[in-house]
Known about the structure:
heterodimer; A: mainly alpha; 12 helices; globular; disordered C terminus; B: mainly alpha; 14 helices
Amino acid sequence: MTAQAPNIRTVRARRSFLQNARRTLATAPFSAWFGMVIIVIYVIAAIFAPWLAPYGEADVVGKAYQPAGSEFWLGTDQIGRDLLSRLIYGARNTIGIAFLTTLISFAIGGTLGVLTALRRGWLDQAISRVVDAFLAIPVLIFALMLLAVAGKSIINLILILALLDSTRVFRLARATALNVVVMDYVEAARLRGEKMGWIIFKEVLPNILPPLITEFGLRFCFVFLTIAALSFLGVGIQPPTADWGSMVAESKTLITFPVRTFPWIPAPFYPAIAIALLTVAINFVVDWFLHKTSGLRDEK
Amino acid sequence: MHPVLKTVLQRLGLGLLTLFVVSVLIFASLEMLPGGFAEAILGQGATPETVAAFNHQIGLDRPATVRYFEWIWNILHGDFGYSYAGMGGSIKRSVTALIAPRLYNTFFLAIMTAIIAVPLSLFLGIMAALYRNSLYDRTVNAVTLTTIATPEFFIAYLLMFFLAIKLKWFPTLSTVSESTTLLEHLWRAGLPAITLTLVIVAHMMRMTRAALINLLSSPYMEMAQLKGVPRREAIMKHALPNAWAPIATVIAFNLAYLVVGVVVVEVVYVYPGIGQLMVDAVSSRDMPVVQACALIFAATYILLNLSADVVSIITNPRLLHPK
């Protein structure tokens, strides 16, 4: 009996990554499309801020509280800086800092989570108990306290929020990794003597990626809103750096002016709307991604 | 021992342990300050003698463990130490005296919000779960998602703009003092309470809906439907006993969220509460006040979550009727 492969039809070539991406995108609902377009616009604004903005970030270019017009598209702020330019630079600063913070928190929390799931033992117990204590304190309160201790600066802000946030990431990474580390292929990798780094990044991580990516979107939103709140309270990003949270705080008194005597300047609303729009956009995309990767089907 | 009692006691013990670890964390964060407090308060030009005298005056020259237990002992007796503001001079302001009236104001606001928000959001959430994918459900979903994504201070300013400046229903700033009457206090705290209600209702309603949908799709609900139990009875007898735990968790989680939301909203409306005090203290690095506020917030947070756990345990049908 000759060993003949039972393969009769020729197998179709695998779809390339681009083809796959196009197929997936074609089925995306409107809300996901809307979200992706918004995110792309924000990213472009953040990366190309110096070229897009008509004026510099902290340049005083006009009189205070000039109304919107052809010279200043959105008007000027309390000391005569162009609002549109500050909004665009704000995208760079606020999103950049939030993104960096989330990256660090995932690097710490994700690695430690997978590592403890693999190793278990006393290290797992010790880290888990510390994380439990951190989880018992609201992030904003703890961040306020640590900022009081360490002093107000952007580096401190990033490190403190990344540390606090990594405890949340740790919990998720550990919980999802626990289901993967018992798989045979992890055991096989261990038996053939792979190093810890290989097992974490090549065996476990790719298999827990979808929930982690979803979490990345949500944590980014959370960090972003927390930074905005801290800046609004005056302990986050410090002036003259353009930042949406502190921009709202700087111009907040404007809305209490009587409308008849003082033309209402919607200055505090622009940065606030910018914050809200990005958060909604990310939520839409995350919802869609979650739906795709979890294999949930519409009940009907 | 009855399994319910045993689990409750275990949970209480765990809660106390968490509270202890949290207090250590809060205390330890003070120790991490580079350069010490004396320099931060007295300025760079302080001579080593003044620094030593200052450290001795506020007791910083003794070992940390001794100071920790003294700190905890004093707090248990209602003494949070003295504020650093005015520490160099002769007037000592006790943190307890600073905090007490503000704590009352904050609890006033929080309770007022809870009384409006909890029944409202439970009602909205249960309706959305029962009539899911209807027009009502979709509308409420879209509205709440937008509310969640919007920063609290923005909602606060929108409300201030429309309700206080355009319509003049409420004052723009919620300044209250000890001489304010209860009715006026209610009126002045109205706008902050509405802001917090909007934020909380969005969260709470979504969580209630998710928890209930999860429950309604469980196999025993399908079984009840298949054996012909009327819908009303199925919900009252089969769903409700199991729903208490998730609902309690949702309520506690959101009241705990209120603890955080209160900070921003108090600053917006200049409401003299403990959140505003904490932000001011952080800016001036008045550590005893920051520590006291952080401890109060954390303790409230832990206690709320603890009570939710206890409610879930004592309403759990599986524990109430052991085999």
